[in-house]
Amino acid sequence: MTTATIVPGAARTLKNHVSFGQTLRNSFSMAWRGLLKIKRTPEQLIDVTVQPILFTVMFTYIFGGAIAGDAMTYLPFLLPGILVQTVITTSVVTGVQLREDMDKGVFDRFRSLPIARVAPLAGALLADTVRYGIATVLTFAAGYVMGYRPEAGLGSVIVASLVVVVAAWSLSWIFAFFGVIARSAGSVQGISFLILFPLTFLSNAFVQADTMPDWLQWFVNINPVSHLVTAARGITMGTDVSGDLLATLVGAVVVVAIFAPLTVRAYMRKA
Amino acid sequence: MDITTTRAQGDWAIEADGLVKVFGENRAVDGVDLRVAAGTVYGVLGPNGAGKTTTISMLATLLRPDAGSARIFGHDVQAEPNVVRQLIGVTGQYASVDETLSATENLVLFSRLLGLGRRDARRKASDLLEEFGLTEAAKRPLKQFSGGMRRRLDLAASLIAQPPLIFLDEPTTGLDPRTRAQMWETIRRLVSTGSTVLLTTQYLDEADQLADRIAVIDRGRVVAEGTGDELKASVGESSLQLRLVDPRDLGDAQAAIERVLGVHATASPEAARLTAPMQDADLVAELLVTFRDAGIHLAELSVQKPTLDEVFLTLTGHTAESEAAGDEASGTELELEGSRA
Lengths: 271, 341
Prior knowledge:
The structure holds two protein chains of two kinds. By secondary structure, chain A is mainly alpha-helical. Chain A has one domain (20-270). Chain A has helices at residues 20-40, 46-68, 71-102, 106-112, 119-145, 153-181, 185-201, 214-222, 224-237, 242-270. The longest helix of chain A is centred in the first third of the chain and has 32 residues, at 71-102. Chain A starts with 19 loop residues before the first helix and ends with a helix. The model of chain A has no long low-confidence stretch (mean pLDDT 86). By secondary structure, chain B is an alpha/beta fold. Chain B has two domains: 9-100 and 141-234 and 318-340, P-loop containing nucleotide triphosphate hydrolases (Rossmann fold, 3-Layer(aba) Sandwich); 237-304, Alpha-Beta Plaits (2-Layer Sandwich), CATH 3.30.70.100. Chain B contains twelve helices and 14 strands.
């Protein structure tokens, strides 16, 4: 036991306010915990390792001939779409795991510590960008093995990946919100996939929007996932996408601005 | 219950007034008042589902009280929650450490969160592991830890910031006697450094051993408060238990006890057993002589200290046992849900 006597409670000077700097530091500490958890339970990475490879190979050879005439013509079109779909699906897992995590006793301790309230959530979400990164790298790697050569070069792939990871991170706040308000991890998964399927499939991720009926085109064109796919596709193909890129990034900021405070409030109400 | 409020503001580590927490139909905490003086050990004694954990959760800013107020070293738990969090350490009923991390990683994480630099956090972690005898297990996954090791790690994590007030929620429940004694030793050392400790327990013995003052809590209310001696005095002294060889002697034996000890003995005829309050141990010898002279033979003789059950029976009119049996299923679960959700 430490021999030094403890400073009496009444003799301490304390603040009731958590500074922005401390919020950042706390969030990064929590992100470090998230990374350790990923390191300890590598089996949880199965969805970001197997899925991108499986989907890329499967979709290319199943739809390639029918949609674009042959697989190799389809691949540059499909790959950004698959990437977006895979990474966004992964962001659902963030919400599910957050729910599981919050049921553990250690969250009681986090709540009792003088740290930023948002830190346990922000840290978990931050650590999960590593998972998105893995999914991104494997999707492009699978594509490369199959013969994909980006027109705009390797740099464009990195830029497109960053855009997708940022978008997925902001979307993960939505699923984190479900994670906080839901009763069980299973229900988080249920609600999230209900939203996710229309969003990813009713988009231009796999086919051109102009092949669809008018009423569906209307939805596909306003679907934020379409903007993200178009942006990623344009970047890797070297075409001008500033409109879609701007829409994507503004959308990402808006989602975080709405859902981060909502999630933290729900989290604190439960606390 | 009579609480004196003559002390100056800063002298109270905890002041709680009329704390209430309701979960659905269940009034888990139903108007709890507490005054804990700085630098003392305060025991909150009660059966499962009595509202102990819920009370701690409110004092530790984990749960919002539905009514009433509480101050920690003069800081209101609802108005200044972050100040309160800088003054307390909480060790939960179920070890609140991260199971996927190692012991060292847990302590480094909490140290970092509390503002220590990378190097200081490492040093703090290894110091604490050393103090709590966990150095050898530092790198092992927590899943391999025994209950006692987990509790010690949990306590170590609560001490990183050297908080002046520490909440220990049933620190020894489920531990074997040897580990329990070690835990008691740790708690005593803690107090000697100047910490204030509020501990909850189901064992009168534990509260008696460690606490300067004890509050007995039942169905969300404080039913008695005082020092261990005062509490035991209110229950009565030890009791003398006799089992007779021949049940037909019960009446005679009862009369003899009445005459020699001057108290009424309760008889349970099926077991030929007599129980009598024992104020003066010296008189027992005389009683035994009387029995021998009267030809009453004893099969068994024992002296029992007041148990928590008897404290409860006396203070509340119902036993702790039946309380636990009746409310455990719903009560405990609610309490858990409350503290975790």
